[in-house]
Amino acid sequence: MTVRGASARAALAGVVVVAACSAPADLPGSRWRFGTPQIVLQRTDGSLRSSWLVTAAGGRTFVLFGETRADGALGVSLVERDGTSWRAPDPWLRPGGASSETLLWVDDRSVPAVLTLADGPVGPVLYVRTFQRNAWSSPEAVTPQGAERPAYGAIASGDGGALHVVYGVPGGSCAEGVQLRARVRDAAGWSTSRAVADTCGLDRVVVAVDHAPNDPLLVVWTGPSQGIAIEGETDLLATASASSVGGDGGVASSFVPPYRVVVGDNREAMVVPVAGGRFLASWTLTTTSPASPSTGQRRAAFDTFDRARGVWETADTGWFATNAAPWIAPLPSGGALAFGADGTQPTARLAVREWSSPSRPVASFDVMANPVGTVSSLRGGLTVDGTVQAVWIETQDGGTQRLTWTVALPVGPSRDAGR
Fold this sequence. Notes:
This protein is an all-beta fold. Helix content is 2%, strand content 51%.
């Protein structure tokens, strides 16, 4: 994230438009002090579907959200922060010919990029919009119209500005399977499709790019290794890209065979790059035994992958109790932030934990908010000046939905600021 934080600091100075809930008190081991959350917008028709936080050059902050529109179809809108308040929502026009558009993934590591799935007479097509030269671009097709039928997708950007998209199409190694494919956009445009892996089903697929030459990738997904996805048979799997130099001196990439990291009842995989050529993956699970019924308490888990050695470490399957998988965001100093609920209750308080290493999975702990409704689509990250921002959807009894945002200043000097 690249926001400069002037408006964020103003919010913490006590200028708040609408308060969603009270500001939490500092706790021992805290690193950030959160202000009172703000309501970005409120809906009573249950139309909000997902929320994403995007920060861009010039200190601009956006919240993108997926919604059901008045015509009954899905669409994407954004709202921009203006000082200490928020502008009116700006509904994006769907791509030409599309009758609906779903927000799939957002990445703002270098150039903010938004991946969507639009559907219409020609079938589903993946599109990307980027924020460059102080404006959002028109939707750009990633997959050819009518040639593929994508249903899942994620996007990640490399240090050089290349955009990597991994997506799923019907196929794979089983009747209900999904074939994972990848495309990359560089200065020459979009590449042809590359095979990543065949699956027997898919819960979620994500991709991360290491800070190294040739953009090494790690693709992680949750789904069954074999057979049909049923409760208790959803594994965590992964594959890494391998680069080789051809006879013409060009670099060609392929993916190694998938590795089954953890078996059992696993859901909602997530992965980010951390320092030293490593990746951090997280997800939720109830059991690591496929033969056991999945009736236990859901909890967050994590594991690390060493790219140079091609090795996964021993997974920690008891990180903390939560129903939804944590959203993790990398820190320049080498760790990561994990945004999630502190418990499995529907209105459990929201917290951010600093993951430092496998031996220090909770280096700091800060409460962000105490919601009064059910929380979904919680996402956040660190800005360049050391502030932390997060956004989520809170659904109250009766169906009222609040798109909520919060920001925190560091309690002391930030070792991650300005990087």
